[in-house]
Amino acid sequence: MSEAVLLFKELSAYLKPEDVAQLETAYQFSESAHEGQFRRTGDPYISHPLAVAKILAQWHLDAQALAAALLHDVVEDTTVTKEQISAKFGKRVAELVDGVSKLDKIEFQSAEDAQAENFRKMLLAMARDVRVILIKLADRLHNMRTLTAMQPEKQRRIARETLEIYAPIANRLGLNAVYEELEELGFCHMHPMRARVLTKAVKAARGNRREVVGKIQKAVKKKLRDAGIEAVVTGREKYVHSIYRKMLEKALSFANVLDIYGFRIIVNDAASCYLALGALHGLYKPIPGKFKDYIAIPKANGYQSLHTTLFGPFGAPLEFQVRTADMHKVAEAGVASHWLYKTDASLNQLQQKTHQWLQNLLEIQSESGDSTEFLEHVKVDLFPDEVYVFTPKGTIKAMPRGATAVDFAYAVHTDIGNHCVAVKINNELAPLRSELRNGDRVEIITASNANPNPAWLNYVVTGRARSHIRHFLKTVQYEESAQLGERLLNQALIPLKSSVAEVASILWNKLLRDCGVKSRQEIFADIGLGKRLAALVARQLFSLSEAAPTENRFPGAVLIRGSEGMAVQFANCCRPIPGDPILGSIKKGQGMIIHTHDCPIIAKSRGDPDKWLDVEWDNETHRLFDVSIKLVVANQQGVLARVAGTIAEAGSNIHNVSMEDGETSAYTTMNFTLQVRDRIHLAQLMRSLRRIQEVVRITRAKG
Ligand code: MN
Predict the structure, then answer these.
(1) pLDDT at residue 28 in the model
(2) Helix (H, G, I), strand (E, B) or coil at 150
(3) What H or E segment, with its residue span, contains residue 306?
(4) What is the DSSP letter of 421?
(5) Which strand ranges, in their side-by-side order, compose the sheet holding 442-446?
(6) Cα 48 to middle of ligand 1, angstroms
(7) Which one of 24, 77, 259, 381 is the catalytic residue?
(8) C-alpha of residue 143 to centroid of ligand 1, in Å
(9) Cα atoms found within 13 Å of the Cα of residue 166, Cβ hemisphere only
(10) How many Å apart are CA 132 and CA 137, to the nearest integer?
(11) CB atoms within 10 A of CB 320
(12) Could you give the angle at the alpha carbon of 591 between the alpha carbons of 588 and 593, nearest 5°?
């Protein structure tokens, strides 16, 4: 209990009394929810959320974040729901708890570097609110501090995850103190033996070197004082993990890692940093190539300092960091410094110089100066242009924001894209046009005979998907047009008592030469696409410039099967179906368009024989055709469901439906686009619909 008392004492120092009271309620709520649960360490479970809240209190985080910290495990580990938290502590707190729980569910699987980077980005992106990440980091920090209670194997797994995911996130957010501690704890649990040996060695070396450090510190202080620079000089022992890293990187033995002490000089302003540096370089010689100016060029996380390494008086290299007090605050607390030092105006100025990534956040802070407004904006996407989704095997794919299932399919493999028919997102069937969201698990369903649909071009966002779909459509259109063109040419050759197969090669070759094309296929495709006229090509083949066949140009109609693909399109105005009398026209570059005889759109030009080809339906059509019908129904509850049910029962699909209210609200007009086999099918369907009581009128819509 005393831990809780300590926490609330700390909170009272910077939060309003009513906020502290609310947090006490949250604490009691969490304690009773976790009643009877214990940690591995043997402590009651509540000790964990309490410790997490305590870490956040050190950063002076707001009341919402602290409430969420106290409650962060209740949804996951107890019977309490998100709604209950929302009702009791507010929507924002519930959202924060929910965010933390969601991150908990993602399990890090692969150790691959690229995967780890994506994971970090995904976690950041999913968190949306920076406070979620801060709570999560505090949660992980406390778990790492108490990791010894776990089985060794679990210790190593969690330690690895910490080193690969959470420590880099802390580093990225500029939370240096958390970063160092996570690194240190991670190293000690990942390599317990090595950590023990090194710790011992550092301890042994400490005795010898303490005196040396003291001497150096004294000398530096004096030098700075003489130069008139006000400064605080501290010497510190380096972390075991950083000594270990140095040994690994430089292949050194411990005896050769001399700089186990680092020095830090804190001065009043940026100019003094450079003055102090000059003084230092006057005291000891700098090691060439070791100087780094992170003040002029801050690190991505906003970190600023001057770094230099000097030849020490006893031959050991000495590392120095020189920075101002403000830079030091940012160096230690990073993004959390917003809460910690929010009154400090000069800090804003400093931070604005930092990298764009952190700047986006902080600019808002300086513009508004208001904490709630800042939070409103801190619901940032830290990576606003990307979403991260899982393949069924658990690999992460980064997709541009707005990417759909089709984009994802093409990102996995061109074949998957070309043959996708459906998608399961988080195990539920969804339309291919569905926009992907962070953390979605996406499984594409393919069919070997399926092909890209031109409609996909309306919603794909990746260049890759777009170009593959275009390429496919072009190739297919070419082939299908060539097939239609061959049939049209055959038709045109009948009056000449010939056919494509019967025309002699010599005539073909002459034609190809005359037209300057390489293959017959190209000629066929041109005819199919309407770039050449079949009758003209037929005459060219036989060089019949005289006596153009007139009235009997097309003695037989071209048969339409509906399987011609893109070479034959059915006009959207009248939507012809088998059984309808039809006309065809070749539109340049598009192939043949089929209309019904009575289509009002073509009424004017129907008399012009040059425009129209005689076409008929083939006896065999093996597909469904779109048709439009208009239904006027009485407004009754459930009428749409009854209509839809009847349509489905009749073996038809609804492609589209729209509704408009009539003059009186008693009637509604429904416009359906349905799929039917032919006129007989449509007639049966309309008969069934007429039997529905509420249906007042039903007509087929053309034009
Ligand atoms: Mn936890």
Answers:
(1) 94
(2) coil
(3) strand 306-311
(4) E
(5) 428-430, 420-425, 442-446
(6) 7
(7) 77
(8) 7
(9) 32
(10) 9
(11) 24
(12) 105
**Average pLDDT score over residue span 229-252:** 82
**Residue 107 bears catalytic tag:** no
Question: From CA 615, how far away is CA 582, in angstroms rounded?
Answer: 6
Rounded to two decimals, the pTM is: 0.56
The DSSP symbol for 78 reads: S
Q: For the packed helices 91-105 and 82-89, what is the interaxial angle rounded to 10 degrees? A: 150
Q: Can you give 539-579 as a three-state secondary structure string?
A: HHHCCCCCCCCCCCCCCCCEEECCCCHHHEEECCCCCCCCC
262-266, 307-311, 490-494: range with lowest mean pLDDT: 490-494
Section 344-361 average pLDDT:
41
The distance of Cα 634 from the centroid of its chain, to the nearest Å, equals 46
Alpha-carbon distance of 601 to 25, in angstroms, equals 72
CA distance 111 to 218: 46
Q: How far is the CA of 11 from the centre of ligand 1 (A)?
A: 20
Say if strands 428-430 and 582-587 run parallel, antiparallel, or are unpaired.
Answer: unpaired
Length of the chain: 703
HEC-encoded secondary structure of 218-272 = HHHHHHHHHCCCCEEEEEEECCHHHHHHHHHHHCCCHHHCCCCEEEEEEECCHHH
| Known active-site residue 694 | no
Mean pLDDT of the chain: 81
The C-alpha atoms of residue 173 and residue 179 are separated, in whole angstroms, by 9
Distances (CA, A) of 98 to 68, 142, 627: 9, 19, 48
- Show Cβ contacts of residue 653 under 8 Å, excluding neighbours closer than 6 positions: 624, 647, 674, 675
Q: Which tokens belong to 691?
A: 């039997």
Task: State the first-to-last Cα distance of the chain, in angstroms, to the nearest integer.
Answer: 79
pLDDT surpassing 80 at residue 340: no
Write out pLDDT tens, residues 528-570.
887 788 888 888 887 754 444 444 444 567 788 877 777 788 8
CA–CA separation, 122 and 389 (whole Å) = 8
Pick the range with the lowest mean pLDDT from 189-198, 371-380, 468-477: 371-380
Residue 534 burial class via C-beta count within 10 angstroms: exposed 0-12, middle 13-18, buried 19 and up: buried
pLDDT reported for residue 370: 44
Give the DSSP H or E segment for 89.
helix 82-89
Residues 398, 386: contact at Cβ < 8 Å? yes
pLDDT at residue 382, rounded to an integer: 45
Q: Token pair for residue 311?
A: 């030849």
Ligand 1 centre and the CA of 131: distance in Å? 15
In 10 A of CB 45, how many CB atoms? Answer: 20
> Half-sphere exposure of residue 478, counting CA atoms within 13 Å on the CB side?
11
pLDDT in tens, 392-410: 887 778 888 889 999 999 9
Catalytic residue of the set 76, 83, 373, 598: 76
Q: How many CA atoms lie within 13 A of 380 on its CB side?
A: 22
Ligand 1 centre from 139 Cα, in Å? 5
Alpha-helical runs (H) found in 268-368: 270-283, 325-333, 337-340, 345-352, 356-368
Q: How far is the CA of 361 from the centre of ligand 1 (A)?
A: 27
pLDDT bracket for residue 663 (50, 70, 90) = low
Pick from 269, 259, 217: nearest CA to 238:
259
Contacts of 363 (CB under 8 A, 6+ apart): 352
pLDDT at 369: 43
> Over 90: is that where the pLDDT of 48 sits?
yes
Q: Which residues sit with Cβ closer than 5 angstroms to ligand 1, an ion?
A: 73, 139
Residue bearing tokens 């065999």: 620
- Neighbouring residues of 603: CB distance < 8 A, sequence distance ≥ 6: none
